[in-house]
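Input structure tokens:
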């Protein structure tokens, strides 16, 4: 029987209602379960994975999305990593990683590292990796995570020193295991531009548990185990894993039921999960999750935004407040997601140190429900004429097919008050991910998968002056407090700062969070051990899968 493990990414503890559903599909066994079917795998051959996710780029500088990161986790090495089931990071391709001065973090690599293409992997590649992230600073990339990095210095072939702007950065070791930190081959990647995915795959510029032997973007990827992997994770269990990309959730569900895929994840609808729960041929396992859903406001183009015909910060705030008063989180949770997502009333989800419920006390009825009278008063007090025209954008594919129902309900909730005239629009993710940073969407949907097991991953990417959202939100006090919490050693003091940031942002409402929930994954019955390894695993590792 096979084992399946998941690399932890995110919360150390979350509420059980935020369920990560893993569906174990029945799989027909061959007469000889140890026979090789010719695909390169052992004990029944390779494994086929199905997903509806989308890859933006294989270049770590050019993408900051779950679909791309899932691939990167299989094929790139990291300086730090989370061993399976652990919230803590440890040296990965390094023998040591530690503060050698308050603003110096020194990493010593293991000797004689190589990429799959035979190129040496040295401290020079590490410096190149981080220098190019900062230099490229792609709007779809994760460079904002390096907000505390001043420079990267090569000491010798295996030693690199990160010079930090602020002392005692409590988050930096986690950042070295995040989406900004896959180590890339300086002989393959451009120093100044995002490198095309096909070029990366062809050059075999990988040194993770797997290399890529076949790559057709968003159609199929074939992974082959890399025997030169030298990280902290165990060697790949299965020699070959094929990933198939499905355009529709229903097609993925059918593939599960017919045994055409052994593992499937992101995404299936709550209805599909419910159907599979009642199917005798599958087993559903639940575990915790930490994805959040929220509406982003563009401070330039939202109603009364800075670049609109009638800019007025007070009126713009009132519009955001009215939306926060009206959103019915419980209805979204129960009617759309059947409880697999739960209401979220702040920016750090329940279960992480420092999480609070700042929004619940400021908006709605004070108990989590909507309050139309409060929304009406907020708009009237600011002199806003109603109904307010609101262009609201969402992606129908990236966050699952239920996004259609989710945003239809949000539209209905807003318009039922008579306070809003909503123009609801949808755009597929491949265009959406770029257009949202180009001031094209006054208000729009996003979801977030945490980068590491700390509240900072829900704060610094969104609310620093230079942030991933690019929504023109600026609050210097918030900016300074985020920087302060990241370098505060005393846990009680740091927790208080995290709470203060949430309180301030709740008053500003640059985003309106409303749900906390989970991913969806599926595995065949001969991929065993899933329930034993379920935790807040947002970096889905194929490396531990096998038959």
């Amino acid at each position: 029987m096979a084992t399946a493990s998941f690399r932890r990414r995110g919360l150390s503890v979350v509420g059980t209602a935020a369920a990560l559903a893993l569906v174990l599909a029945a799989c027909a066994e061959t007469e000889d379960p140890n026979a090789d079917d010719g695909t390169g795998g052992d004990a029944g051959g390779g494994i086929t994975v199905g997903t509806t996710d989308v890859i933006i780029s294989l270049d770590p500088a050019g993408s900051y999305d779950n679909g791309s990161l899932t691939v990167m986790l299989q094929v790139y090495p990291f300086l730090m990593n989370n061993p399976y089931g652990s919230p803590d990071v440890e040296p990965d391709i390094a023998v040591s990683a530690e503060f050698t001065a308050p603003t110096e973090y020194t990493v010593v690599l293991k000797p004689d590292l190589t990429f799959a293409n035979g190129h040496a992997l040295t401290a020079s590649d590490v410096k190149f990796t981080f220098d190019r992230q900062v230099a490229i600073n792609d709007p779809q990339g994760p460079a904002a995570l390096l907000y505390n990095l001043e420079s990267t210095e090569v000491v010798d072939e295996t030693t690199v020193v990160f010079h930090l702007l602020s002392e005692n950065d409590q988050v930096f070791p986690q950042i070295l295991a995040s989406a900004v930190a896959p180590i890339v081959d300086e002989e393959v990647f451009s120093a100044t531009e995002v490198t095309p995915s096909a070029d990366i795959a062809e050059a075999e510029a990988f040194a993770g548990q797997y290399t890529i032997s076949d790559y057709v973007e968003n159609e199929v990827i074939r992974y082959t185990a890399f025997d030169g992997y030298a990280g902290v994770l165990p060697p790949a269990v299965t020699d070959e894993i094929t990933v198939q990309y499905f355009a529709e959730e229903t097609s993925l569900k059918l593939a599960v039921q017919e045994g055409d895929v052994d593992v499937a994840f992101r995404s299936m609808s709550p209805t599909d999960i419910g159907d599979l729960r009642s199917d005798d041929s599958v087993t559903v396992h639940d575990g915790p999750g930490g994805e959040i859903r929220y509406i982003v406001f563009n401070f330039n183009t939202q109603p009364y935004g800075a670049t609109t015909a009638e800019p007025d910060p007070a009126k713009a705030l009132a519009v955001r407040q009215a939306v926060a008063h009206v959103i019915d989180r419980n209805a979204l949770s129960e009617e759309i997601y059947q409880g697999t997502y739960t209401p979220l009333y702040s920016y750090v989800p329940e279960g992480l140190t420092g999480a609070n419920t700042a929004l619940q006390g400021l908006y709605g009825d004070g108990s989590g429900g909507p309050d139309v009278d409060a929304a009406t008063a907020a708009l009237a007090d600011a002199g806003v004429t109603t109904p307010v025209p609101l262009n609201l954008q969402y992606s129908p594919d990236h966050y699952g097919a239920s996004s259609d129902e989710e945003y239809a309900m949000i539209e209905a909730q807003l318009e039922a008050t008579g306070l809003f005239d909503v123009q609801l629009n949808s755009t597929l993710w491949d265009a959406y991910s770029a257009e949202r940073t180009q001031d094209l969407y006054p208000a729009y949907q996003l979801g977030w998968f945490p980068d590491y097991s700390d509240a900072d991953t829900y704060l610094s990417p969104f609310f620093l002056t230079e942030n991933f959202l690019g929504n023109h939100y600026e609050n210097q006090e918030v900016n300074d407090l985020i920087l302060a919490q990241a370098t505060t050693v005393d846990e009680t003091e740091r927790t208080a700062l995290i709470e203060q940031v949430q309180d301030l942002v709740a008053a500003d409402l640059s985003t309106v969070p409303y749900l906390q929930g989970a991913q969806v994954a599926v595995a065949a019955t001969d991929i065993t051990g899933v329930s034993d390894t379920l935790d807040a695993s947002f970096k889905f590792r194929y490396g531990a899968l096998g038959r």
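Confidence is low (pLDDT under 50) at residues 1-44, 529-538. The chain has 16 helices and 22 strands.
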